[in-house]
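Tutorial sheet, problem 5. The two components below are modelled jointly, 310 residues in total.
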Amino acid sequence: QTIVPCTVSQLLAAEQVDETFRICDVEISQVTVVGIVRHAEKAPTNILYKVDDMTAAPMDVRQWVDTDEAGGDNVVVPPGTYVKVAGHLRSFQNKKSLVAFKIMPLENMNEFTTHILEIVNAHMILRKNLMSASSAPPSFPSAGIGDMGGYGGGGSLPVNGLTAHQSQVLNLIKSCPVPEGMSLQELKLQLRSMSMSTIKQAVEFLSSEGHIYSTVDDDHYKSTDAE
Amino acid sequence: IHPTGKLFVLSDGVGKHTTVELSEPLDEEISGIIEVVGRVTNQATIMCVSYVQFREDKSPFDLELYNEALKIIHEFPEYFPFG
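Model answer (structure tokens):
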């Protein structure tokens, strides 16, 4: 079970099937969110915060209070404070909220920047793992961003006979609805981190393996897989 | 900060500036890193709705890294959606 950094907008967009939430097919349960407290309401058994990360309207975050415990956890975080929330996503009557097991005021605002980068990194890796049908649970460091540049340049481990680059190119071509297929220019636009030569190599390989075929000219390709 | 307190100029740390306008004059002194939430006007200024001062008492804020992070999130809207 992993804890996934998310934006509020991602949490609101998450689809629920029975007890499970998914963001673009990635299963999520425990999440972290960084935002600013807009409102704090203290009740006998819990504190209700509204946390705003500017990607959507502020989200309800509930923190249960141990009434026997004195001090520490019972201190309400004042509005205007940036916090990192770790908790579980919940949905009740179609309204999403978080139940927090930890709310930490940010002492170092660089954690805010880190969280932003971790969100992109984590969701990119999680979706990539789904695409390459990996069964290993994803693990990514919570401190240290890893090599963001490595995602575009590396990814050369073949899975299902296709490298990550080839998979990406193939999936894009598969998803193209127009009859003349997807052009190399369009692929380059969508795959900004991939060089044109890498894209061309992937296209050549996919074409030779029979996954795609050229249509109007050598710059346009469609997938042979029926969608 | 303008003498009337209704205007201040922000620098993004890499040479660009922007003017922030307030509907009410500032009632406190502000300095350092400020995060402004507001609307862009057609004079290319920002009409401020709210602002918050980033705390830098424990560590300085790396504005350059933040700018790089922004470029990344705009490049990958599929992983960082603005709802």
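Marking note: Confidence is low (pLDDT under 50) at residues 140-159 of chain A. Full credit if you identified this.
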